[in-house]
Write a structure and sequence with these properties.
The complex is a heterodimer of chains A (282) and B (523).
Chain A: H1 3-33, H2 52-59, H3 65-96, H4 102-113, H5 121-131, H6 143-167, H7 172-179, H8 184-195, H9 197-213, H10 216-221, H11 230-239, H12 246-266, H13 268-275
Helix pairs in contact in A: 1-12, 2-12, 3-6, 3-9, 3-11, 4-6, 6-9, 7-8, 11-12
Chain B: H1 3-33, H2 37-55, H3 60-86, H4 99-107, E1 110-111, E2 118-126, E3 131-138, E4 143-148, E5 154-157, E6 175-176, E7 179-181, H5 184-189, H6 191-196, E8 199-201, E9 204-208, E10 213-219, E11 221-224, E12 229-232, E13 238-242, E14 245-248, E15 252-253, H7 265-272, H8 274-309, H9 317-324, H10 326-329, H11 332-342, H12 349-356, H13 369-397, H14 402-409, H15 414-442, H16 445-452, H17 471-480, H18 488-513, H19 515-521
Classes of the chains: A mainly alpha (282), B alpha+beta (523).
């Protein structure tokens, strides 16, 4: 095969893959602008363009899409900020100090992480069901319960990621600071934190996306429509009468996906380097 | 340096600790006042640890580790042990409460004796505060009682009292201290409140029986703690404890039941009851096939695209890569729900396209097990190939190009080079990620559940098991799809089976990656 033929073949393969990639996206964009709300009459290019689905999405009181989107953003943001703080703190001594049981501690974190948190759904549900009797503000159907659940699952693997990254930062930097009279905590905040910023961003983004996309725990813990996250809300919205709500669903799907896609594409290089460090999505 | 600067960190720490202790004390008070003694003990225990760690210098590293560990223990470690415990109980719909709560519940039930003591009543209402006073009249014994809805206390009164001056019957009384008498129509309007009224009277309960009368209801079930039985006062049947219920040979069991230790019964059911075992086995096999297919298909496509994109001379390389990772960047639940619509068997776009093509026809996605599985594999391919492409691209860059040059001199074909150089080297770095991807798809709840909730159903299964259910969705449906009632005990037993499988896979992965060695190396 000569060079130009092989190059054409490569472009063809890529273009087929791109067609596959865009297939569902194009249909959903088209449906969101198609004034018909049903799957039945959908054509690839709508006969007329209408924003009625977007309008309904913003104003519907029966199905508060904006509320769900806001809940998702709020929960994901708080979870990510806390997860980054907790894992950075936890990774620091594992990377920098030599203490008794350090090795065992690292091993236990790794071992615990083997148990996928979602397997504990029954136990977590019952935990909050029981806790509800004493502290209603963190029982079932509260965002606090969901955030705490996500945090529990986020600490282990991210501590490992963060520790690995901290290990690559030379210790001589802090040692110089100690000589200048800095305390350990000062060395941590002034020297280490700025240097690990890329990893902070990666963990933040990955955690944000993971919390935003999480469905099962949210479904188990949240009970009322006003508390739903977008994942739970959208699923229940289309479970019955799928065909009849296709247009509004499409509009919400696009609005719900765009912020995440943008963040991802803007930071793709950092995220990709973080991925090969061990975080797995699919 | 002045005092403040020197001790700033210390002062902040003390303020934080004081705040934490106040919070802990508050929750301690709440849990004790609600009777949560175990919770109180745990709270005290946590308080002691926290104060100790932050005040003593001996555990300096723990100060950093503790906050994160707390959440991990609460939501990962503790649930593991709790799951093991639940798997040995009958916890689930019908057996949600503990024994004390069930006894309490049963003892609150009442019945109307065959010859009830009945009272005529006259009701008075104060509209402003929305409260009632009621005068009861036992005609046979010529006794009179008065109660109100504020404290529900009842006291005997007599017609010689001042308020009855000149009247022969309470029903002639128009008003008591601002409470106005209700006529028949008004009683009907307030029926809801009056019917809900329970007034304690001589260890029994006074409740509305008809529009004109209240009657004395008696407590029906009495618990006998000496021999752990419940007696039905109405017919003198004795109920003994059996498998989480109070049970009587003749009458069957009382509901609700209570949760109790059942040993390995759930495991035995899972492994010996054919109506549970058969569907479980099908789910089990499909889970493995599913995870293998997922990894194989996404890796194949990802590898192909990575090989193409790895060509440095390819135009638009960066743009292509950016476009192709869009499926990975989209929140999974949104993509899955979109695909679910496109695959809708009656009105979905995919079947309409198939119908329009020559020689093919619409396919029964969602209703036929084979075609639903096929659709799932395709959707997963869409979701998963970008990740495989990304990690393979990374791995390809790390292969030393001189290896290719050497082999080219030796006359190796493109295929030989791929087969003997690229693939083996690729597997070294990508292999562990493929194993974790297998483990991920093994538990890919979102895709299976959001696409078709594990359906279509397997015919004749006693538990809710569908043709596309994997173990994790199966567990979820056992626990939370309440059509037939939740069975937390059985679900937890299944959970532990999954855990053993996933742990085994991960153990192999650790050996593969040498993650355990890494722990030691760092020492």
């Amino acid at each position: 095969m000569n060079k130009s033929k092989s190059s054409i073949l490569k472009h063809i393969i890529i273009l087929l893959a791109i067609a596959f990639t865009f297939f569902p996206i194009i249909w959903v964009i088209s449906a969101s602008f198609n004034p018909s709300n049903t799957l039945v009459g959908q054509s690839l290019i709508p006969r007329e363009i209408s924003f009625s689905h977007y309008r309904e999405m913003f104003t519907s009181t029966q199905h508060p899409f904006m509320r769900w989107l806001w809940n998702s953003l709020k929960i994901s943001l708080i979870t990510s900020v806390l997860a980054v703080s907790l894992t950075t703190l936890a990774a620091y001594p594992f990377s920098r100090f030599r203490f008794k049981y350090r090795q065992k501690g690292l091993f236990i974190i790794l071992l615990v992480q083997v148990f996928p948190q979602m397997l504990a759904m029954v136990a977590i549900y019952l935990l909050f069901l029981n806790l509800q009797r004493y502290f209603p503000s963190m029982g079932l159907n509260t965002h606090l319960a969901l955030i705490i659940t996500y945090l529990g699952g986020a600490v282990g693997i991210n501590t490992w990621l963060m520790k690995g990254y901290m290990d690559t930062i030379p210790r001589s930097l802090e040692e110089a600071a100690y000589i200048d009279g800095a305390s350990k905590f000062q060395a941590f905040t002034v020297i280490i934190l700025p240097l690990i910023r890329p990893m902070l961003v990666v963990i933040f983004i990955l955690q944000f996306i993971a919390s935003y996309s999480e469905y099962m725990m949210a479904r188990i813990l949240l009970g009322s429509s006003s508390q739903y996250t977008l994942a739970v809300g959208l699923h229940l919205f289309i479970t019955d009468q799928y065909g009849a709500r296709w247009g509004v669903f499409s509009a919400s799907a696009i609005v719900g996906a765009i912020p995440i896609i943008l963040i991802f594409l803007l930071l793709q290089d950092q995220i990709v380097s973080g991925l090969t460090g061990g975080a797995v999505k699919g | 340096m002045n005092f403040w600067q020197k001790n700033k960190a210390h002062i902040f720490k003390l303020i934080f600790l004081a705040f934490f202790n106040a919070l802990a004390l508050l929750s301690l008070i709440i849990s004790i006042s609600q009777g949560g003694y175990i919770l109180a003990v745990i709270t005290v225990f946590i308080m002691i640890i926290i104060n100790f760690v932050y005040l003593s210098d001996r555990f300096y590293p723990l100060r950093y580790i503790l906050p994160g560990t707390f959440f991990m223990i609460l939501l990962v470690v503790y649930p593991i042990f709790y799951t093991i415990y639940i798997s040995t109980t009958n916890y689930g719909t019908g057996n949600m409460l503990n024994k004390d709560q069930v006894i309490n519940h049963l003892e609150n039930r009442t019945y109307l004796p065959d010859e009830p003591r009945t009272f005529n009543f006259t009701a008075f209402k104060n509209e402003e505060i929305d409260q009632f006073k009621i005068i009861f009249e036992d005609r046979e014994r010529e006794e009179y009682y008065m109660a109100d809805t504020i404290n529900r206390e009842i006291s005997q009164i007599s017609l010689s009292d001042a308020i009855f001056q000149g009247l022969s019957s309470p029903s002639e009384l128009e008003e008591i201290n601002g409470y106005k008498r209700l006529d028949r129509m008004q009683i009907i309007q307030n029926l809801g409140t009056l019917e809900a009224l329970k007034i304690e009277f001589a260890d029994n309960e006074l409740r509305m029986e008809g529009i004109n009368t209240f009657a004395l209801y008696r407590q029906r079930f009495v618990y006998n703690s000496a021999n752990d039985t419940i007696i039905d006062q109405r017919d003198a049947h004795e109920y003994v404890v059996r498998q989480g219920h109070f049970y009587n040979e003749e009458m069957g069991r009382l509901s609700p039941g209570f949760r109790t230790f059942v040993g390995f019964r759930n495991y035995r059911r899972l492994l010996t009851d054919d109506r549970i075992l058969q569907p479980f086995f099908r789910v089990f096999v499909w889970t493995f096939i599913w995870a293998l297919l997922s990894v194989a298909t996404t890796f194949a496509l990802g590898l192909l695209l990575a090989l193409v994109l790895n060509d440095k001379d390819l135009r638009f390389r960066k743009l292509y890569r950016t476009i192709l990772i869009i499926p990975y960047a989209m929140p999974g639940f949104i993509s899955i729900l979109i695909w679910r619509g496109l695959f809708n068997p009656e009105v979905g776009v995919i079947n309409r396209i198939l119908e329009a093509l020559p020689f093919v026809d619409a396919l029964p996605f969602m209703n036929n097990i084979f075609w639903t599985r096929a659709a799932l594999v395709l959707v997963n391919l869409w979701l998963g190939f970008p990740y495989m492409m990304l990690i393979t691209l990374g791995a390809l860059q790390s292969i030393n190009p001189s290896l290719y040059e050497v082999s080219a001199i030796d006359g190796a074909s493109i295929w030989q080079r791929f087969r003997y150089i690229t693939l083996p080297l690729l597997f070294i770095s990508v292999g562990p990620l493929l194993v974790s991807s297998f483990a991920y798809n093994f538990n890919n709840f979102n895709l299976i559940y959001l696409f078709n909730a594990g359906r279509p159903a397997i015919a004749g299964a006693q538990t809710p098991a569908g043709g596309t259910d994997i173990l994790i969705t199966y567990t979820y449906r056992l626990s939370f799809e309440t059509g037939r009632g939740a069975d937390f005990g059985l679900a937890s037993a299944v959970t532990l089976m999954i855990f053993i499988i996933v742990a085994t896979i991960t153990w192999f992965n650790f050996r593969f990656t040498g993650a355990l060695e890494e722990v030691k190396e760092n020492e």
